[in-house]
Write a structure and sequence with these properties.
heterodimer; A: 250 residues; alpha+beta; Alpha-Beta Plaits; 3-stranded mixed beta sheet; 7 helices; 9 strands; 36% helix; elongated; B: 380 residues; mainly alpha; Formate dehydrogenase/DMSO reductase fold; 16 helices; 71% helix; disordered C terminus
């Protein structure tokens, strides 16, 4: 099955908010909550300052999502096509996914009484109907491009090359925390857009290894040590009792 | 017996203050469930976890006194410790009951909490799942360990005999469950390699959390025994404490060596001095929670005196609080400009839970044979 992704070209975004609006309409998100929203970052100092815009701080749809690994009840899942999806009917609201996400993207609709997690689902239902996600389908400049992740990576490399050194020579999301489905290329440093430098090892590896190996080990070792100690002290006591009994009978 | 004649009820002022604070806590808890998290707490997307989580990950290792006690009394069969086991296990149970209550209040979708207990929903790779299941089971184990209080009080001899036989098994199950969830509380933060600051994030987090739970448990035993000894005129058991303090000193030293060695191996020593307020927090934790109690517990002259024991235990507990607050709140990276200070309701819930636990402790110790010397061998 094809792995989908989304290429965000910060250099091409004109800040029109068509994606913000299309997403809000399509997903009917609660008041004040946006699954994708154009943000503005100012670069340089006056009078040479210029704003950069892009739909940032949205779900990156990690290849190895920490949130999915974190969720105790399987409310978050990783679809084969790439989307990290959320099912409120399973969610207990512990917010471990929010704490675990290295991009700080899952949100909560705090104003509801029974809040749920709010995050981009990569329009899984539209994909099933052979449609692009709402945001990409309305982008007038190609700043948001939906497609297969592999071909988007090739496209991103081409655009960086064609920019003649204008773009940072890095595709953000290609390797970060093991790779993400959402990719960014940009003429300004990623960190100044709020995209922090991250290691390329998946976050989930260590935690899942400890869960699979560490947990049974701790249980086994603890049980063995306890059993041993218990038998040892019992035997010693019996020995003591026997010797005092022997002394008494003398 | 001395214990029996000197036992007395708590002063009226205690009942009034604890009663009012507890009732207020209960009231705002219901308000929180009815109004939602946004309306009642200062949590936000940048601070999804706050005071309540910190309180939980502090109270759980604090209550570890109960499992440490069970290990000493039942598994190592050190009979003399049975005399102080019951007050400690009672405090441990009330601690866990408080944790469960606050965890429930912290769930945004609390109406579905039961789903975490249902195997069909389980994600076995999630440490949140492991922690929740272990805590639930362990709270039941603690209740079983306390149940002889009832069998004794109401003279149900046959049940009492049954529990005496099962005692070691129940205690054993409790110890295994405790080792698991104390370590798993640390494992919760393994996923946060990128956001938890290097002085605290480590692949050794599960071991650090387990080890610190054991010596904090010992500190809690010392604290509870000295305090109840003074409050209830039951000083006889204090002579058992220097041995525990000595064991705590060994574990504190081991923990210190591991923490330091881990920082050296991971090449994070520079952060000890160059990370501003976080460096300060780190040194506060090390000096108050490690160095001072290590000295107090290691020296014979201080660990054999009530004041030395009490202050050593308090330092360990404060150090534990600093450590868990750093891991769960202060040392986690946030989006620029984000701020958090707990709301009045968040504080009222925590203080209310403590007040209700104190009332429960006073009531149970008054009506059930918690301090009975005869209790010794039947403590499960």
């Amino acid at each position: 099955m094809a792995k989908y992704g989304m290429l965000t070209d910060v250099g091409k975004c004109i800040g029109c908010h068509a994606c913000t609006t299309a997403c809000k309409v399509k997903n009917d998100t609660p008041e004040g909550v946006f699954w994708t929203r154009v943000s503005t970052y100012e670069q340089g100092t006056f009078p040479d300052a210029r704003p950069y815009t892009a739909p940032l701080s949205r779900c990156m749809h990690c290849e190895y999502p920490a949130c999915v690994s974190a969720c105790p009840v399987g409310a978050l899942g990783k679809a084969e096509e790439g989307a990290v999806t959320y099912d409120a009917s399973r969610c207990v609201g512990c917010r471990y996914c929010m704490a675990a996400c290295p991009f700080h993207t899952p949100q909560l609709d705090w104003d509801s009484v029974l809040s749920s997690i709010q995050k981009c689902q990569l329009c899984a239902d539209r994909l099933a109907a052979d449609l692009e996600p709402a945001c990409a389908s309305v982008c007038p400049t190609g700043a948001l491009q939906f497609g297969e992740r592999a071909s988007l990576l090739a496209e991103a490399r081409e655009r960086i090359q064609a920019s003649d050194g204008q773009y940072v020579n890095h595709i953000y999301g290609q390797n970060e925390v093991g790779g993400t489905s959402v990719l960014y290329i940009s003429p300004v440093e990623f960190e100044s857009l709020g995209l922090s430098p991250l290691g390329s090892e998946p976050l989930t590896e260590l935690s899942e290894k400890v869960a699979v190996i560490g947990t049974p080990t701790i249980a086994g070792v603890a049980a063995a040590v306890l059993g041993g100690l218990y038998l040892f002290t019992k035997r010693r006591e019996r020995g003591k009792a026997a010797s005092t009994a022997a002394e008494d009978s003398k | 017996m001395i214990a029996r004649t000197q036992r007395r009820t708590a002063p009226t002022v205690f009942w009034v203050v604890a009663g009012v604070v507890g009732a207020l806590g209960l009231g705002v808890s219901i308000w929180r469930l009815a109004q939602g998290l946004g309306a009642t707490t200062n949590l936000s997307d940048a601070y999804p976890w706050g005071l309540w989580i910190v309180f939980d990950i502090f109270l759980i290792p604090f209550s570890a006194g109960a499992f440490t006690m069970a290990a000493i009394a039942n598994i190592m069969n050190k009979d003399e410790y049975h005399a102080i086991a019951r007050p400690v296990i009672l405090a441990g149970f009330l601690g866990y009951a408080g944790v469960v209550a606050i965890l429930l209040l912290d769930l945004a979708r609390w109406h579905q909490f039961y789903k975490i207990l249902w195997p069909g929903f389980w994600n076995l790779q999630s440490f949140m799942l492991e922690v929740t299941l272990c805590i639930t089971l362990y709270t039941i184990v603690l209740l079983l360990e306390l149940s002889p209080l009832l069998w004794e009080r109401f003279r149900m001899a046959s049940v009492q005999r049954g529990f005496r036989l099962a005692g070691a098994w129940i205690a054993g199950a409790g110890i295994v469950l405790s080792c698991l969830h104390q370590a798993s509380l640390g494992s919760l933060f393994l996923l946060m390699r990128e956001s938890l600051q290097g002085l605290w994030w480590s692949p050794m987090l599960p071991l650090f959390f387990l080890l610190s739970a054991v010596f904090s448990g010992l500190a809690m035993i010392i604290f509870v025994t000295v305090i109840t000894g003074r409050a209830y005129g039951y000083p006889g058991s204090v002579r058992l404490l220097p041995g525990l303090a000595q064991a705590a000193a060994v574990l504190l030293a081991l923990y210190g060596v591991l923490r330091l060695g881990d920082l050296v191996i991971r090449n994070q020593v520079g952060l000890m001095f160059g990370a501003g307020s976080l460096s300060l927090l780190f040194w506060g934790e090390i000096i108050i929670g490690l160095v001072i109690p290590l000295v107090l517990f290691a020296l014979k002259s201080t660990r054999e005196r009530g004041a030395g024991l009490l202050w050593g235990a308090i330092c360990v507990i404060v150090g534990l609080a600093l450590n868990r607050a750093s891991v769960g709140l202060f040392a986690l990276e946030r989006p620029a400009g984000a701020q958090y200070f707990p709301s009045l309701i968040e504080f009222m819930v925590v203080i209310g839970v403590l007040a209700i636990a104190a009332i429960a402790y006073a009531v149970v110790t008054q009506y059930l044979p918690v301090f009975s010397d005869k209790a010794a061998s039947t403590t499960g």
